[in-house]
Amino acid sequence: MTETLGVVAPGDVLSVRPGFGRLTRDSLVFALGAVAGKAIGFLMLPVLTRLLTPSEFGRFDVISALAGAGVSTLVLGMDVATTRLAFDERTQDRRALFGTWYAIAGIVVLPVAAILILASGPISQVLLGESAHAPAIALVGLILFGGVFHTLALTVLRVQGRAGAYALLEGAYLGANAALAIVLLLQWRADTVALMVALLASWGGTAAVAALALRHSIGARPQLPDARRLLQLGLPLAPAIAATCIADFVNRAYLYRTAGAVAAGEFSVALRFGSVAALMVAGFQLAWQPRAYALGRGDAALRHIALDGQRILAVVATGVVGLALVSPEVVGLLTGGRFPAVLPAVGAMLVAALAMGLYVVACLPSAMDSAMRDLGIAAICGVAVTFLSNLVLAPALGSAGTALSVVVGQFTAVATVRLLANGRRVRVGFPWWRMTLLVAGASLITLAATSGPAAGSIGLRALLAILALGGLALEGTIPGMLRGQAD
Q: Would you kindly state where each structural domain of the chain is located, as residue ranges?
């Protein structure tokens, strides 16, 4: 039987079915487009590493990181604010809420894009040590429009619970980007400019198609009260998001300048492999947060939420360990052996994805209490620790050092948000000691499988697999799920 819980805007019906099976299915559908994209990305990795020199591959990583950081920063936390406000009793018209965000986005993006285009030469000189890459920097300015409005459309679909359309839009963008990139690299020029043109066309094209398809959902006149509420809830997150994205870009640029373009390319490979695990986290987050908001704060609802969080973390830990155990062969196959020193960075990025899963669980009580300030403070603390760690680790360890700095920063964010959430009205009874031990064990096995003797020995990794299975059996969450344990 469908159970409708929580507060929704008038005229909306939100169906919430407690149970991890339903949550998992919704998570998989939300992540389906990105899954297709990651599969395409894996197929693209050997193409890029063969058509581009290692130095050009590293250069593309830095410039594409600039585009990604710009998009995430200019969203201003409005995706989080919109998702939360859409389930607030004060929201009378979601169409006006969405339309207001579209108007704010256009106002914010335009001046930043103009600066990147007009000052592309000096920016290229500062970031890459030469002004020859100004055309790629200028393309970033145009890409910002497509990226921000693409994010807007995805948020609208997420709030509406349209998981299939969400997956279709994300998959269309990723598939189009891969296809265009291959054509342009083979038929035009094998460099970063060709890849940035492909990104511009795919992001901009899908954003335009989505805006047309959603015109009835976003076409209401912007409202000043909605703008005020969006800014009040989203802006406390904006500095943290900006700091996170800018620091991510600066860390890569610092790695590029201190350890070389090849090290930057190694980090990009590690990031792409780690993003497979991060995709699991993202899928659960996309489905779990709206579900938790709608379930509300009753005792039964909080018990369901706590159980969901415990199971999410167990599934993510299992996936991370599994990826780590096969990573030496898979990475070697995908890169053609052109990045032989990349495995330690791969292991660290897998652990970073595991820490991200713990962060998603830890920040939910604050998000349910609309205490976005907690998330902002935690993110800034994590960014600061990542940046300071990278200053020391990148010159000494190269790509592995930058990846390890991400791990340290992510766990710092977890500890910070846990501390801040203790003072909030919403108390979710997560079994923290049990989840912490699970994450610690999975992290140790992941790092052991991707560095030292185990990275080159299938036999040693088989022993690690047996150890991991024994740990999961003792922890009990996965066996309970397999037995069909009641929610």
A: 1-6+17-27+239-487, 78-234
